[in-house]
From TrEMBL:
This is Phage integrase family protein. Residues 9-129 form the Tyr recombinase domain. One of its GO terms (biological process) is DNA recombination. It comes from the Bacteria. InterPro entries: DNA_brk_join_enz, Integrase-like_cat_sf, Integrase_catalytic. It comes from Paracoccus lutimaris. Keywords: DNA recombination. GO terms for molecular function: DNA binding.
């Protein structure tokens, strides 16, 4: 399958089935990196409403003309304003990367989702990950580690004296 058209010009010709799962494959405009991603059930449900012969999922109004990257971002922002919700295409990508980080994805898994050439940007996301969740996960790997024999919240009295 050709990965020629970029992410803002996607249609049914970019959808495949692999191992019983729908996937979408394209080449990202900004990086020229190919992406081959699973289609989540929520998106599959929405795509099922589109005619199977449609070459572009998102077109400029009723015309069969695709968007350029910057105009697609503007169109999306306008739809968010109309719906009275915050949002941008970049924000969606960032949210997706953050969800992958929080789920324990590797930097290369995140870079593959973002269609990046390397893991530099993924490193940025993993550094900002939910640190409390990661700390809990790290401590869980230690197994059974003893704690002080008294409460640490200060409600059990003064524990400054040596025992």
């Amino acid at each position: 399958m050709s990965l020629g058209p970029s992410s803002e010009r996607l249609g049914w010709q970019h959808v495949t089935q692999k191992d019983g799962r729908a996937r979408i494959a394209y080449k990202r405009t900004k990086t020229s990196v190919a992406a081959d991603l699973p289609i989540l059930p929520e998106l599959a449900e929405e795509l099922a409403n589109l005619p199977k012969h449609r070459l572009l999922f998102i077109t400029q109004e009723a015309r069969p003309i695709g968007y350029k990257s910057e105009t697609l971002g503007n169109w999306f922002r306008d739809r968010c304003v109309e719906a009275q919700v915050p949002g941008s295409l970049h924000g969606l990508r960032k949210a997706g990367a953050t969800r992958l980080v929080d789920a324990g994805a590797t930097n290369w898994e995140i870079a593959s989702y973002l269609a990046h050439k390397d893991t530099k940007q993924a490193d940025t996301y993993t550094k900002k990950a939910n640190r409390a969740k990661l700390a809990d996960s790290g401590f869980a790997k230690l197994g059974n580690v003893s704690n002080f024999p008294f409460a640490l919240d200060g409600s059990a009295g003064n524990h400054d004296e040596k025992q």
